[in-house]
Specification:
The protein contains twelve helices and no strands. It starts with 7 loop residues before the first helix and ends with a helix. With 248 residues, the protein is an all-alpha fold. It folds into four domains: 53 residues, no CATH class; 49 residues, no CATH class; 32 residues; 52 residues, no CATH class.
């Protein structure tokens, strides 16, 4: 029927010699196989497609029964959709790993091996409850944004202490500025101008002080600064210690 519905060029190309009466009979048989009310524009192309599908079915079939829709197909479709969604979520977590997170494009053997390897890694699972409680507690203390930032930038564990100290000082400075409208409105240029004015006023004051030696005031000022720095350093260490030991 494929040869009978084909063109003369197709039959010549494939070496098919078929009498006209035989071709007419096969064409009628092919049209009889079409369901009533169904229109097929290219009968030859449809027969070629059916022949290819029949060959594929013969390779996969375990018996000579005609192809039928398997039972439980709807349930299988729902299970496939659920599995696909789970693989997409898991793949997003594994995206930055060595093997990547494109689990949908793994064949069955590769996928099973990858999942078995993940299940076999018990070390991280054993500490998961403790880590979950710790992260929840840190978020309750207002460190959620810091945790998200560290995770997004993939900061190594060795650098988290420095990152936490930097965040603490930034928060402290923001709190100081928010409590002083003058500091909040000042930018770098204003601060440099204030520094220059203070330096000029200080030099004028030193120059106008009767009997003040050139070294007495700097020495006295240096001692005062050392005392202030020592107090500030102790306060800073106490504050950081309180932050780091917030957990009971």
């Amino acid at each position: 029927m494929i040869a009978a519905t084909a063109t003369t060029a197709w039959r010549r190309e494939h070496g098919v010699d078929m009498p006209a009466l035989q071709r007419a009979r096969f064409r009628r048989n092919a049209r009889d196989l079409v369901r009533p009310g169904v229109h097929i524009a290219d009968l030859h192309a449809s027969l070629v497609l059916v022949n290819e599908q029949s060959a594929l079915w013969a390779e996969a079939a375990t018996s000579k029964r005609h192809p039928t829709v398997p039972s439980g197909l709807a349930e299988l479709s729902r299970t496939f959709i659920e599995l696909r969604e789970k693989l997409l979520k898991l793949g997003a977590v594994l995206e930055r790993t060595v093997d990547g997170g494109d689990l949908l494009n793994f064949n069955s053997g590769e996928l099973v091996g990858r999942l078995e390897a993940l299940v076999g890694s018990q070390d991280t699972l054993e500490t998961l409850p403790e880590r979950t409680l710790l992260l929840e507690g840190m978020r309750e203390q207002g460190l959620g944004e810091l945790l998200d930032d560290l995770a997004r930038r993939e900061v190594p564990a060795a650098q988290t202490s420095s990152e936490l100290e930097l965040a603490w000082w930034q928060s402290a400075l923001e709190a100081m500025i928010s409590g002083d409208e003058y500091l909040a409105m000042s930018d770098g240029e204003n601060l440099r101008r204030l520094e220059a004015e203070f330096r000029l006023a200080d030099q004028t004051h030193v120059a106008s002080t009767p009997g003040a030696s050139a070294g007495a005031l700097p020495s006295s000022g240096a001692k005062s600064w050392l005392a202030v720095i020592a107090r500030v350093k102790c306060s800073a260490m106490s504050s950081r210690t309180a932050v780091f030991l917030w957990l009971p």
